[in-house]
Design goal:
This protein has 875 residues and is of the alpha/beta class. It has 31 helices and 24 strands. Strands 10, 11, 12, 13, 14, 15, 16, 17 and 18 form a 9-stranded mixed sheet that branches. Strands 8-24-23-22-9-19-21-20 form an 8-stranded mixed sheet, sandwiched between helices. Strands 1, 2, 3, 4, 5, 6 and 7 form a 7-stranded antiparallel sheet that branches. The longest helix is centred in the last third of the chain and has 41 residues. It is elongated, with a radius of gyration of 35 Å. It starts with a helix and ends with a helix.
């Protein structure tokens, strides 16, 4: 109740989000990029040519596209911020005598805040207890060197230098601590800095940079083509200077992809949204592109391939094997058996939060710690009572190099050190074993038997922990873990079950069919790792496991050769530095690497990878900050779904580029005939604008929302250096689809001229309503071809019959809108007169109606031939 009162008094513990870019600045960016500047130049040329209606029409096109791009960019930024808000952020506090986790926003001044390794500190805290606490203050000071923080007071000149405080926004790298919150939200040191420096810097993604290059190439081509044909026409005296300007404007307008940027914005925004619905929070839009080209996924085992929940399957103590559901409750009156000491060690050397009531309430903390607390409760040991009886004095936190954690406790004057960790690493520090309620010397033969038991449990897929303790003399000082963890008494083993997620084998199989290698990196025992890898389909029956020790023995060259020649799929006993080294090695081999991580020390590997993927449930705050993407369900299958979405986004942008380039050829061809053959211009510049506005924009945007096509995850990932506008795309769009649209639309023009004049190439109608009917026929022919092209562009190789006409409903609505758009502009006199259109007589409608199916059928025939040739080559 007091916490609620203080929350109302002080407000939520949060800092205002960085403001998005100013709306005016965002809009101005949409009217000042390369393509927009070219259109402004075209409008100026139209004014010089004495065509103000054309100039205003071009200006209108620029503003309409800018407004749409602005809206999509704004929606994308809002979407990313909203999804980012779903990322978990909690804090441990002690209230009413119990530890519990609350949202970080509900921490209030006066709370007792508890922090462990990997936590981001939620508020400014004055420490009352600490255990080898090292914090990363770089977010406040810019210094990468970790700083030590203790509960002992010391003089300081600024709050950032106070050694007995940890401040909001900093991160606990090692150790743990607890203390009293004295500032939250805007009143914290971090909040005061953030208030002065909040700015949002949007860096262009690789995709955006490539699109900028594409735009510059298109601009250069448009200018060159315009100059060349103007010069040719002027030299042959076919065109006047005024007509030359008209031609230049026409070429510029025809070749500029007005809908490109809105489509890219829409495709990225929809991709991020779809990933969000599948529990993948994308923090950087550039990650969408990188995901689509991922060729290696380096994944953790626990919680990613396996279920987050863990359960103790069996216990081995005093040379007796107990099934977790079969062991009798311990007799606390004696309490000296190996099993009772093992359970006591499991409860005390544990940073989990004991439940306040039923065992089913146990849902806070590390799954491994939770499982140990739960089995102790089942066997009659009360964690709350045990922790009150054995007060914790000191903690030597778990470290990846030691693979152990130990805690010092005191009970009625007696001191004891409790240790848990990797079984081999823990056993190596033991000189005795507790059997028959007394410590017996641990001989080499007995060590071998215990390690055999570890291997047996690991071979059955269990995760094995070793437990030990050491009674201490009163007043004995322990200054380091190395000094404390020696001459231990071995207590026994716990084998924990961590079942494979049901969806993982199918997800791994999808990766393999997509040409993506899945590699498991785990700190677990090699036997356990291999069992899980085989179950998941990552490793074959005769696969070998590479351990962290073996990696240490390899130099960089030898590691590259190992990955290239033997292609190992399982790495066990790896430390975070091994993970970083493997990510860098795969990248040197030319792979695009996605890597998962959840710990503090995983942050370097997450940053080094092309796509860093952090765990949303069990991941540390440091890992989530370093990652490009956060999995809200910690599920490997979600990564695979995100890869598919990334590929789909990339392909959708290529589909639009193909669609737009096709129309460009059809729009430019009439001007080429006008200059080289001297025929009346089959298409006016204003009608080109209308093609781009009516035929390109709506279906083009719908292609940006196209679902992933069948077989997308059965293709190999694209090469790192592959260009979006490839030679194959240009050949298909320009030389085939574009020429096909040009032939069909000009055929409509010449057919109309023949039907009216009686000759196709002798004499032409070149003015008046009849001429406008002819150009309207060309315009309508291009739009009709683009309707067929919209379906043709949905796949580079697959038949539309396999993809389905109804699988992209927005495209059907877009085509309906395009047809309605045509009808409105032809039917309404003001619009018709503005764009030099005339109603088309009904006898020409069947010809126009035949263009879409004929266009699509021709492209389907080409795809069929290519598929058959491809199958023959594979034979």
């Amino acid at each position: 109740g007091e916490a609620e009162r203080r929350l109302r008094l002080h407000g939520p513990n949060e800092i205002a989000r960085p403001q998005p870019p100013q709306l005016l600045r965002l809009f101005l960016a949409q009217v000042s990029h390369t393509l927009a500047l070219l259109l402004w130049a075209a409008a100026a040329l139209a004014l010089l040519a004495g065509l103000p209606p054309l100039a205003w029409a071009i200006v209108a096109i620029v503003l309409i596209n800018a407004a749409f791009s602005f809206w999509q960019e704004y929606r994308a930024s809002q979407l990313v911020q909203a999804l980012h808000g779903r990322m978990p952020s909690g804090a441990r506090v002690r209230r009413d005598g119990n530890e519990l986790r609350v949202p970080a926003t509900e921490v209030v001044p006066g709370d007792v805040l508890i922090v462990h390794r990997g936590d981001r500190v939620a508020a400014d805290v004055r420490l009352t207890h600490s255990a080898e606490l090292l914090a990363d203050y770089s977010i406040l000071t810019g210094e990468s060197q970790a700083v030590e923080r203790t509960a002992e007071a010391a003089p300081y000149t600024s709050l950032g230098e106070a050694t007995n405080c940890v401040l909001a926004g900093t991160t606990v790298l090692e150790g743990s601590g607890e203390g009293v919150v004295f500032a939250t939200g805007r009143d914290t040191a971090f909040g005061k800095v953030a208030a002065l420096t909040q700015q949002l810097y949007a860096q262009p993604s690789p995709l955006q940079r490539e699109l900028a290059v594409t735009a510059r190439i298109i601009a250069a081509v448009a200018i060159c083509v315009g100059v060349i044909f103007f010069a040719a026409g002027y030299a042959t005296e076919r065109v006047s200077a005024n007509d030359g300007l008209l031609f230049g404007v026409g070429i510029l307008v025809a070749l500029i992809p007005e809908g490109l940027l809105p489509t890219v914005s829409l495709a990225l925004a929809l991709g991020v949204q779809r990933m969000g619905h599948q529990n993948a929070i994308v923090k950087r839009l550039s990650s969408v592109e990188a995901l689509g080209s991922t060729s290696v996924i380096c994944t953790d085992k626990t919680g990613t391939l396996t279920e987050t929940e863990m359960a103790v399957h069996e216990l081995w103590a005093g040379d007796v094997l107990y099934g977790a559901g079969e062991a009798r409750p311990i007799d606390e009156s004696g309490g000296q058996s190996a099993l009772s000491w093992l359970l006591r060690c499991a409860v005390l050397c544990n940073n989990g939060v004991p439940p306040s009531g039923r065992p089913s309430d146990l849902n806070v903390g590390d799954p491994l710690d939770e499982a140990l607390l739960l089995v102790a409760m089942k066997l009659g040991l009360d964690p709350h009572r045990e922790r009150r009886a054995w007060r914790r004095l000191k903690e030597f936190p778990f470290h990846a190099e030691r693979r152990r954690m130990s805690t010092l406790h005191k009970s009625d004057g007696a001191l004891a050190l409790f240790v848990k960790g990797g079984p081999a690493e823990t056993l190596a520090r033991c000189v005795y074993e507790l059997r028959n309620e007394e410590p017996l010397p641990l001989e080499e033969a007995r060590r071998s038997q215990i390690l055999g038991r570890v291997n047996d449990m690991s071979d059955r897929g269990l995760r094995v922990l070793g437990f030990a303790y050491r009674p201490l003399r009163s007043g004995e000082r322990l200054d380091s873990a190395e000094e404390a963890e020696q001459e231990l008494i071995f207590l026994g083993l716990a084998g924990l079950e961590n079942p494979l997620r049901a969806e993982v084998p199918q997800a791994v199989a999808r990766c393999q069919s997509a040409g993506i290698r899945v590699v498991m990196l785990t700190g677990d025992h090699e036997h356990t790792a291999l069992v899980v890898a085989k179950q998941a389909g990552i490793a074959s029956n005769n696969a070998t496991v590479v351990t962290g020790g073996q990696l240490d023995a390899l130099d960089d060259g030898a590691l590259i050769r190992l990955l290239e020649e033997k292609r190992p799929a399982v790495f066990a006993r790896v430390a975070p530095e091994h993970k970083l080294r493997l990510v860098q090695a795969y990248k040197r081999l030319g792979d695009v690497v996605a890597v998962t991580g959840d710990g503090v020390n995983d942050a370097p590997a997450l940053k080094a990878a092309d796509v860093g993927v952090a765990m949303g449930k069990k991941g540390s705050d440091v890992a989530r900050e370093a990652a490009d993407m956060v999995l809200m369900d910690d599920n490997f299958a979600t990564i695979v779904a995100a890869v598919e979405e990334g590929r789909a986004v990339y392909e959708n942008i290529r589909k639009f580029l193909t669609y737009f380039l096709t129309a460009n050829v059809a729009e430019a061809a009439p001007f080429v005939l006008f200059v080289l053959a001297g025929i009346p211009l089959p298409l006016t510049v204003l009608q080109i604008l209308l093609v781009d506005l009516g035929a390109d924009v709506f279906p083009g945007l719908a292609l940006g929302a196209d679902p992933a096509e069948p077989g997308l995850m059965r293709r190999p990932p694209r090469a790192r250096g592959e260009r979006m506008v490839s030679a194959a795309l240009l050949l298909r769009a320009l030389a085939f689809l574009g020429m096909l649209a040009a032939v069909f639309s000009l055929a409509g023009y010449f057919y109309w001229q023949w039907d009216v004049t009686g000759t196709a190439f002798g004499s032409f109608v070149d003015e008046g309503p009849l001429y406008r009917q002819a150009t309207t026929m060309t315009w309508a022919g291009i739009v009709a071809c683009q309707i067929g092209n919209a379906f043709a562009c949905r796949s580079e190789r697959e038949s539309i019959l396999r993809i389905g006409f109804l699988t992209n409903r927005p495209l059907l609505w877009a085509i309906a809108a395009t047809i309605a758009f045509m009808a409105i502009f032809i039917a309404l006199p003001p619009l018709r007169d503005l764009f030099d259109l005339e109603p088309i007589e009904p006898r020409y409608w069947p010809l126009l109606a035949a263009f879409p199916p004929l266009f699509l059928a021709t492209e389907e025939a080409r795809k069929l031939i290519l598929r058959r040739l491809s199958r023959r080559r594979k034979r």
